[in-house]
Write a structure and sequence with these properties.
heterodimer; A: TIM Barrel; two-stranded antiparallel ribbon; 11 strands
Amino acid sequence: MQIVLFHLMPYADLDLAEGKKNGTVWVTLPNRNFDPEKGHKLYNRYLDELEYGEQLGFDVVAVNEHHQTAYGLMPSPIVTASALARRTTKAKIAILGSALPLRSHPLMVAEEHAMIDVISGGRLITGFVRGIGAEYHTFGVNPTFSHDRFHEAHDLIIRAWTEPGPFAFHGHHYNVQYVNTWPRPYQKPHPPIWIPSQGSKETIDWASHPDRRYTYLQTFSPVKVVGRYLKSYRDTCTGYGYQCEDRQLGWAVPVYVGETDQSARSEAKAHFEAFRNVYVRMPLEMLLPPGYTSRESLKNVMKAKAQMFGDVTIEQAIELGLFVCGSAETVTNAFEGHWGEMRFGNLLVMCQFGTLPADLTRANMERFARGVMPRLKTL
Amino acid sequence: MPFTDHFIEVDGCRTHYRRAGKGAPLVFLAGASGAPVVLPFMEKLAERFDVVVPDHPGYGQSDEPEWLENIHDVAYFYLDFLAALKLDKAAIVGSSMGGWMAMEMAVRNTSRIASLVLVSPAGVRAEGAAPADIFLLSPEDMIRKLFHDQKYAAERLAAPVTPEAIDLALKNRHTTARLAWEPRLHDPMLPKWLHRIDVPVSIVWGAQDQVLPVGIAHELKRLLPKAELKIFERCGHLPHVEKMEEFCDLVVRFACK
């Protein structure tokens, strides 16, 4: 199994009371709540943590993209991935992912990812996402065109990376007379592509298609839901007439390893609950603007609203498998058990979440790397 | 005379409309919530006009055509709709999104249009009069914001919510986003061409409109200097509901002169 250290880089110095009072830390939380001096320290701390991840033996270090939120301070994962490209030597660098419909030109994405791939000597893992619903509010991009723009941008990027340029591209949303990307990516035919998702049939059908076979990552979901979607991906591959490889599946989950189950819970509790109940929280209308999902999915979310939008305690989250927490033994057993059922080839662990401070984050990373990772890598 | 239901195919879009009354044709173009039911003002207007109330493409019982991408598509569609129904010298009464559609039609072609009544229309932007964020408001808050007299909001909120009504609301909301998400509820190019509207225009607004503030009415009057402007006091975003009698009197007086 390939082990990925995934970071959201939240604004951990957030005044949680302000976040709660505003109802969400997305879109509308005034940016006077961001202190650039604290931000300076956080960015450097978080980049240090990812670099330390390479020393500890993580196979991949991963960053992602979110806009106008305390949830994550990476509106451009290109910036953080670029910094990592120069400060790491062995670990792969994953961008999970670039939000294609939010970018005004897909060729910029093709160029930036190709640059990082060339600078790092082929260590880039590319990820493509649509951006979350809230980001259609922040950017003004029309969510009813989100899928169309995503697919067309994807097609343009793949062609830019693989077809000899210059050539012309005529789409509905993007029209380019000269597609002739310099640099071309280091990896042939292009960097591996991962697709993070909260779970949707449409995404699974698309990512698993024999022309693509992209790695599908289920992010921050109860373990039952993870199992359901990963099985759905495997079944879809079978339906397409090929067998799904384990490397095509991944699970992204926050993790905390303590000396004992008891100490793990007490150390993580406040920070996990801040993550789940303050940083993640947003109203339904912000999460799912019209057209971002199908109306059927939207109705299902509306039905599950009370459960999805209410507070969750650390105990409930552990029970649901939304959070994996305990001693090294407990955490190893949990992942081995889940792996036995799901056979995911990639495990993305978030060792920092919410307000978790630097000392606990490092201790968590070390205990995970020394006490959990060795056995998982043999799977 | 009760409204009857009809369907007609226009531009490949099976379009639902209701129709009642006799007299000069009057087409009512509804706002973002569509026209799911016959409202009292429609019946009142049907005493004097041949009233046609269509479901816009992508709304209500009408199809969601592939070609529907922006407000301009709707404008061309409605010009074709007037022709398909052979409506001549029609009064177009448009509320909110429907008022925006009416203006987009009229800058293109007024050959079948006699007059426009723009009821708190979307379509133009005014400095210092920012619209409510209709896509972030909860459904309850949205209904409250529609009315000055909260008695109307309470009535709507008390109405039972059926699965069909939810489906319809989601469909209407989707199409509203498609047409009005960005630029939000307006077309920056529209003011350039408003001078092409060569039929009488009446602008109607509620002084306490919390969805599209009354400041937009004054900007629209500036852009359409020959238009009449009537502002109803103690009235929100839907004058045809909150000031039904006065509103219908205004339409009759204006459209029949």
